[in-house]
Amino acid sequence: MKTAENAIASSTGTVHTGLRHDAARDLAAVAVLVLVLSVALGMAAGLGADYSAKALLVYAVGVWLVWRALGAHPHPRFGPANRVTLARLGSMALLAALVGEDLPRPPLADMPTAAWWLVGVATVTAVADAADGALARRSGLASAFGARFDMETDAAFTLVLCALVLQAGQAGAWVLAAGLMRYAFVAAARPWPWLAGALPPSRRRQTVCVVQITTLIVCLGPIVSPGLAVWLAALSLVLLTLSFAIDVRTLARQRPTPQET
C-alpha cells in the first residue's frame, strides 16, 4: 500500500510525451463512449435529462485523477491493462449516474428487464477486473500506477453498487458502510500515519473484494427478495470488516516504536 501511495504522491514528476498522447487518446475515446451510451440508455429507459451529464461528470472526475497521477506511470505507453481499467471506470460512471434516477427502484420484481440489464452491466464491469492484472504482466507494463488505478476503480465501483442496492430498497443505509470503508481507512491514515504502511499481497483481501462486489450485484437481481438481500449484504459486510480488521492489526504490529522513530 505504501508503495502505491508514494507513487501517486510523485505524480507531479515528468511525464513522457508519448504517454500523455497515448493516455489522452484513450481517455477521450472512453469519454465519447460514455456519452453515446448514456444518451442511448437515457432514451431507452426514460431516465432524466441530466443522466448523461451526471455520467460524464463522474467520468471527468476519474479522468482528472488519472491525468494528475500520470507522473507515477513508469512506462512510455498507457498500456492495455490500464485501458481495461479505464473502460471499467466508464462503465462505473454509467452506473453511478443512475443514483437518483427511477432505475433501479423498489420493488425490483416489477421491473425485471431493466434490473437484469443493470445486473448484466455490473457483472461485465466486475468480470473485466480479472483481465487487467494479467494484461499488465503479459505486456510487461505492470506498475504501482496501474495497481492503484485498479484498486481505486474497485473502491468506487463498490460504493456505487452499495448506493444502488439502497436505492432499490434491497437494504438499509447501513449497506453504504461497505463502500465507505476503504475511504474511511484512507482518511484514518492522516491522524495515524502507520495505517499507510506497506501491506503484503493477500489472497484473502482479493477474495473478500470479489465476494463483496458479487454479493452486491446479486442483491440487485429482481428474483432476490429484500429479506434475502439484507442477509447477503450483511454477511459480506461482516467479511469485509474482518478483512480490514486483520490489515489494521498487521499494520499496528509493524508500526515503528518510539525508539525507532
From TrEMBL:
<dbReference type="InterPro" id="IPR000462">
    <property type="entry name" value="CDP-OH_P_trans"/>
</dbReference>
<keyword id="KW-1133">Transmembrane helix</keyword>
<keyword id="KW-0472">Membrane</keyword>
<keyword id="KW-0812">Transmembrane</keyword>
<feature type="transmembrane region" description="Helical">
    <location>
        <begin position="27"/>
        <end position="45"/>
    </location>
</feature>
<dbReference type="Pfam" id="PF01066">
    <property type="entry name" value="CDP-OH_P_transf"/>
</dbReference>
<feature type="transmembrane region" description="Helical">
    <location>
        <begin position="114"/>
        <end position="135"/>
    </location>
</feature>
<comment type="similarity">
    <text>Belongs to the CDP-alcohol phosphatidyltransferase class-I family.</text>
</comment>
<keyword id="KW-0808">Transferase</keyword>
<dbReference type="InterPro" id="IPR043130">
    <property type="entry name" value="CDP-OH_PTrfase_TM_dom"/>
</dbReference>
<dbReference type="InterPro" id="IPR048254">
    <property type="entry name" value="CDP_ALCOHOL_P_TRANSF_CS"/>
</dbReference>
<feature type="transmembrane region" description="Helical">
    <location>
        <begin position="230"/>
        <end position="248"/>
    </location>
</feature>
<protein>
    <submittedName>
        <fullName>Phosphatidylglycerophosphate synthase</fullName>
    </submittedName>
</protein>
<feature type="transmembrane region" description="Helical">
    <location>
        <begin position="156"/>
        <end position="177"/>
    </location>
</feature>
